[in-house]
Design brief:
Length: 632
């Protein structure tokens, strides 16, 4: 390895303003910033505060200005419906400009919030970019969330308008969106003024005019509009993510830093150039979908694939290879779960051998820990580098990765490679001292965070400061724990809060506990994420009943599962609740969730010295065995 990467990395840490000023040269500005970083009010830093630009202009118009309007911007492929389409930059801009005009005609202006609750169809991308064009702030909500979650996002964002579709498709099931949306609008305290609904062919639903309007109708009456000039520090979007309570956190993204950082990553991290075909197999409802299905590839001017399907079951374990082969995809980004699912169905790669993957150069994995077995299996099959990289909704781009466009680094199985330029990552021990190499601790990033990360939480500066920026003075607390080895490789070992990762989806066990506590027979409960071979982790619920409850355990368990599905959504993948007699606690009354998890995972555990009654641990173990929950 040469020292090319080290030089670039050191430059970014020693001279962040210079580094990000240079990167900012690569994007379109209406007014180029002269003030690169405002650090006068920590932890509220501002990048490019006197610059003005537009997200949509950088995603579409700029490429047309450069004579690349005929290049393909978006490829849509839906093995679920059999639909396929392609849009050039020119075509996509025309649709976006028109839809932006439709939003304006519905009374949406700069700064207004718009909720997007849609399946993986081109109209979802058009809706996001349409908002960006007129400076409206979108908040995309993942389709696997239930009405209550949607309602909490409507209330927190105080959105004026909601964009949805008549349905989404999951293998073997149609997700009817309209009843879910109706219910959310009904329970939300804040009242949405209008709904635009895209009717999917063969699944049209009835709309109640004048507040509910079809996509077709708003678009046919609209006039195309141009991009509005936005200050760099105005917000592009809010993306809600699980917090430690049931109240989700509205991660916000400011406009200028988002464009600069994401465009920079496409070449430097992913080695993608303008003529390349890029595919991120995620969902636009997650951060990976925001950053790497929509924004970063379009800022770069390459081609992005929008895939409405699954790694398995749509129709088989060859679905990913088919997309790569059909469209000559250069690199794929997905979650390790997707590869575990393919490996489970087709361990020998029989489907793989049917396709020509000569265009394929690299696979990127993130969203959860990538187990070495899966990485090695993928490497053996694909014969290309498989890169585990680490990031969060909060940052919107990788904190650590192999920066393949700068210099390919050696893989260390189980590590998410080195800190990416812009991130000064440290490990802090419980006594607040910095850890030595290989010592475990909390993973933190020295402030200021680079551009493109979250400047605050929506309407919650205090929560931002207290939650993320206060426990370690001068550092952002990632809530991940791990260590950095002698070579600077970062090893992400676990979360330090109650967040679990289920199939690459971020969930709060605290939020599930809040739902279980609402069951009228439940006195107390604990939800924990136990290891799962396919999904990485799965939530299980343990409930203790109130005295005098005469319902049988099975009924209560079923009711609890149904409540979580109805209140959080199918995405919680919450399928197991067992009724137990008592929960193990410390003498001060804290539930020993970590110890129960170790028992369930069948790994060694120590009896905590503060435990109130150690006998409960054996009872729990017996219960887990009885219900066939014990791992291993
Ligand atoms: N709308 C409505 N429901 C959805 C949904 C959506 N957009 N996405 C998932 N769901 C539902 C599923 O249908 C499933 O419902 P069920 O309980 O009725 O079966 C439930 O939510 C759980 O979904 P999931 O955890 O994804 O499990 P699965 O068994 O359907 O699929 C995989 C398993 C591995 C195929 C799937 O998780 C996958 O493709 N993972 C890739 C990871 C990924 O994209 N991560 C995103 C972040 S990078
Ligand atoms: P999300 O905000 O949904 O992207 O989830 C972020 C969390 O997912 C991180 O804080 C980690 O706990 C986990 N995560 C993401 N990428 C990785 C990775 N490569 N290795 C281990 N954990 C990861």
């Amino acid at each position: 390895m040469s020292d090319k990467f080290n030089k670039i990395y050191d430059h970014s840490i020693k001279n962040p303003e210079k580094f990000w000023q240079e990167a900012a040269e690569d994007i379109f500005w209406f007014k180029k910033p002269t003030k690169i970083l405002n650090k006068f009010n920590p932890p509220f830093y501002k990048w490019y505060e006197d610059g003005s630009t537009n997200t949509c202009y950088n995603a579409l118009d700029v490429h047309i200005d450069k004579g690349r309007g005929e290049n393909t911007a978006l490829i849509y492929d839906s093995p679920i419906t059999g639909n396929k389409s392609k849009f050039t930059y020119e075509e996509l801009r025309s649709k976006v400009a028109n839809f932006a005009g439709a939003l304006k005609a519905q009374g949406i202006n700069k700064g207004d919030r718009v909720i997007i609750y849609m399946p993986m169809i081109p109209e979802a991308v058009i809706a996001m970019l349409g908002c960006a064009r007129i400076g409206a702030i979108h908040s995309v909500v993942f389709g696997g969330f239930a009405s209550t979650e949607l309602a909490s996002r409507i209330d927190d964002s105080k959105a004026k308008l909601l964009i949805t579709a008549s349905c989404g498709f999951e293998p073997g099931r149609t997700v009817e969106y309209k009843p879910l949306v109706d219910e959310a609008i009904k329970i939300a305290n804040h009242k949405i003024k209008k709904m635009i609904l895209f009717q999917r062919t063969g699944h049209e639903v009835k709309l109640n005019a004048p507040t509910e309007i079809s996509w077709e109708e708003v678009v046919s009456n609209a006039e195309a509009v141009d991009c509005v000039e936005m200050n760099s520090n105005e917000f592009a979007y809010i993306l809600y993510t699980s917090g430690t309570t049931g109240t989700p956190k509205g991660i916000v993204r400011d406009i200028g830093g988002h464009i600069v950082a994401l465009k920079w990553t496409m070449k430097n991290i992913y080695n993608i150039d303008t003529n390349d075909i890029w595919w991120s197999a995620s969902d636009i409802g997650w951060i990976v979908g925001h950053s790497y299905i929509v924004y970063a590839p379009l800022f770069k001017g390459c081609t992005t694939v929008l895939f409405e399907g699954k790694p398995v079951g749509t129709p088989d374990a060859g679905a990913f290879w088919k997309i790569i082969s059909d469209y000559k995809v250069k690199s794929l980004f997905t979650a390790p779960t997707a590869f575990r699912a393919i490996k489970k169905e087709d361990p020998e790669g029989k489907f793989f051998s049917k396709y020509d993957l000569s265009s394929f150069e690299s696979l990127f994995l993130a969203g959860e820990r990538a187990d070495p077995d899966t990485i090695k299996w993928a490497e053996n099959l694909l014969k290309v580098p498989v890169i585990d990289h680490w990031w969060q909704t909060e940052t919107s781009w990788a904190i650590s990765s192999n920066c393949t466009g700068i210099e390919m680094m050696e893989t260390k199985y189980g590590s998410a490679c080195k800190a990416v330029p812009g991130y000064d990552v440290k490990i802090i021990k419980p006594d607040q001292s910095l850890a030595k190499p290989n010592e475990m601790g909390d993973i933190v990033v020295k402030l200021p965070l680079p551009p493109g990360t979250f400047p605050t939480l929506w309407n919650a500066d205090k929560r931002y400061k207290e939650n993320y920026m206060s426990n370690y003075d001068g550092y952002y607390q990632t809530y991940d724990a791990g260590h950095i080895d002698d070579d600077g490789y970062i090893w992400i070992m676990s979360r330090t809060d109650d967040i679990i990762n289920v199939a690459g989806h971020r969930l709060s066990t605290g939020a599930i506990e809040e739902v279980l506590s609402e069951h009228q027979s439940v006195a107390e409960c604990a939800v924990l994420g136990i290891a799962d071979k396919l999904k990485g982790q799965l939530p299980i619920g343990l409930v203790v009943l109130k005295s005098g409850v005469d319902k049988d355990d099975e009924t209560i368990s079923k009711e609890c599962i149904q409540m979580v599905r109805a209140k959080i959504g199918p995405v919680a993948a919450f399928k197991v609740t067992i009724v137990i007699k008592r929960l193990p606690k410390t003498r001060s009354g804290k539930i020993l969730r970590g110890t129960i998890r170790k028992i369930a995972d069948n790994v060694e555990y120590k009896i905590p010295p503060t435990i109130d009654d150690p006998a409960i641990l054996s009872e729990i173990k017996e219960d887990l065995i009885k219900h066939k929950i014990l791992n291993g």
